Amino acid sequence: MTLATFLLVLIFFVVLYFLVTPMLSPLLSKEAPGTPGNAQGAEDLRYRKAEVLESLKEFDLDLKMKKISDQDYQTLFQETFAEGAKILREIDQRAQEAEQPPPETTPQARETRPPSHETPQAAVPKFCSQCGAALEAGANFCSRCGRKIQRVPL
User: Whole-prediction pTM value?
Assistant: First the structure.
């Protein structure tokens, strides 16, 4: 085997390595990209969401340009839309899981927790003290004169 042939084979395998490695990296990782414990998973979902939105826009453009038939458009649109809905549900589910407090595991944990100190509620007046207009529920200011509503402590 000559030196030129050896170098050619070496260059071939180096190029092949750089082409195949990105395709195999998700398969070789220890944790799947979509698992909740992986911070990369949320980023992957956002990226996939952007890809789906871009695809839907492309399908609309392709239909307008008569590149695809109405039937193909409907099929592609429905499949991609379903994938997008699945991605959005997964994003919402992860957001809800992140907001939930950890569950209490034992009855002792519930008993040893200090009592919550809630602030006392204040009575909300029904009419403005300045102009006498009826106040809307939950309003902080009078809608007629703009005066700040003074709550009366209980």
Answer: 0.41
Q: What is the dihedral of CA 74, 75, 76, 77, to 10 degrees?
A: 40
Taking a C-beta distance cutoff of 8 angstroms, is the pair 50, 91 a contact?
A: no
Residue 33 pLDDT exceeds 50:
no
Count of C-beta atoms within a 10 Å radius of residue 84: 17
pLDDT at 128 over 70: yes
Give me the phi and psi of 141, to 5 degrees please: -135, 155
Count of positions (residues) in the chain? 154
Query: Which residue, among 40, 46, 48, 37, has the nearest Cα to 98 in the 3D structure?
Result: 37
Judging by beta carbons within 10 Å of its beta carbon (0-12, 13-18, 19+), is residue 77 exposed, middle or buried?
middle
Nearest to residue 124, comparing CAs of 112, 111, 109, 141?
Answer: 141
pLDDT tens column, 77-122:
999 999 988 988 888 888 888 776 655 555 555 555 555 555 555 5
Q: Between helices 39-64 and 70-99, what is the axis angle to 10°?
A: 160
